[in-house]
Amino acid sequence: MNAFSPLQRSLAQAVRNRVAGEDADERAEIIWRSPGERRFVPEDPVWRVHADAAMFPGGVASLLLQMLHPMAMAGVAGHSGYRSDPWGRLQRTSTYIATTTFGTIEHAQATIDHVRSIHARVRGKDALGRPYRADDPHLLMWVHVAEIASFLRAFQRYGADPLTPQECDTYVEQAGWSAERLGVIDPPRTLAELESVLAAYRPELTATDAALDAARFLLVEPPLPLAARPGYWAIASGGVALLDPWARRELRLPSSALLARGVMAPVGRASTAMVRWAMAGTERTSA
Q: Rounded to an integer, what distance in angstroms lies between the CA atom of residue 79 and that of residue 279?
């Protein structure tokens, strides 16, 4: 293992710089080492899921699924700057998840309040001409359930130690803690409730031109050097494999279950294991 330590550290640093930003060490110091009461502990399902490398393909699946709601997609296209600053958007999202999961309750609430203040200013019309606002509880619910369903599915498929059915219910309940404070009304508390809410949104979902363009940007033309793209595509393949066939068809992605399970999922599993290995190296180095 020692012979590979330099490679391990190099991979870990590259991942951290992209996902958390070059000031990742400073932000990690605040999130992990600030004194104060925390809502969750390392044994909690939400902690285990959000700390695992399966969050990488889970994040890709989450973005793809969320963009199938025309109003959510309009908000991303019109206000997030995902094309001009894609890594900045990813870093803000990863900081939000880390702070609300691992940080103190005080820091988590401050982060939630900040995001709520941003949502209050985001308004517009979607591709169908319908007005939307980012703080609409119905839209917030969609973003929440699409996100945690993707994270949980990724952990169950690619995680080293999948949750039990009871722990899955606990994960859904715990993930609702920050969602409720963000403005989601009565978030699902069990896996069955989560699946029921997801199904209820199905008639509202369709791939607009903006969604197809965003999916291409995310999957085909990522803002990465050519040398880094194969590794990213391996993770993205794992994310695509997590989507239901109907969602892949909407986004004009390979919808064959055989292809997803036989090719994309194994690639995603292998790339997730590589990221997990790199992250473990960082934990040992920084200890």
A: 32
Task: Give residue-wise pLDDT tens across range 235-276.
Answer: 899 999 999 999 999 999 987 776 777 788 888 888 888 777
Strand partners of residue 38: 104
Q: How far is CA 241 from CA 60, 199, 224, 254, in A?
A: 10, 19, 22, 9
Nearest to 66 by CA among 253, 261, 208, 271: 208
**Of the candidates 268, 259, 22, 20, which has an alpha carbon nearest to the alpha carbon of residue 158?**
268
Confidence of residue 21 (pLDDT cuts 50, 70, 90): low
Alpha-carbon span 52 to 44, nearest angstrom:
13
Distance from CA of residue 8 to its chain's centroid? Answer: 23
122-131, 221-230, 276-285 — which is least confidently predicted? Answer: 276-285
Contact 150, 59 (CB under 8 A): yes
CA–CA separation, 45 and 178 (whole Å): 15
Measured between alpha carbons, how far is 118 from 133 in angstroms, rounded to an integer? Answer: 11
Q: CA 85, CA 211: separation in Å to the nearest integer?
A: 17
Local structure of residue 104 (DSSP, 8 states): B
Dig out the tokens for 77 from the structure: 């296209």
Beta-bridged to residue 131, according to DSSP, are 125
Who contacts 161 (Cβ-Cβ below 8 Å, separation ≥6)?
48
The residue behind tokens 């992605």 is 253
Q: Taking a C-beta distance cutoff of 8 angstroms, is the pair 187, 144 a contact? A: yes
- DSSP letters for 67-97: TTSHHHHHHHHHHT-TTTSHHHHHHHHHHHH
Provide the 10 A C-beta neighbour count for residue 161.
7
| Residue in the structure block whose two tokens are 């965003």 | 214
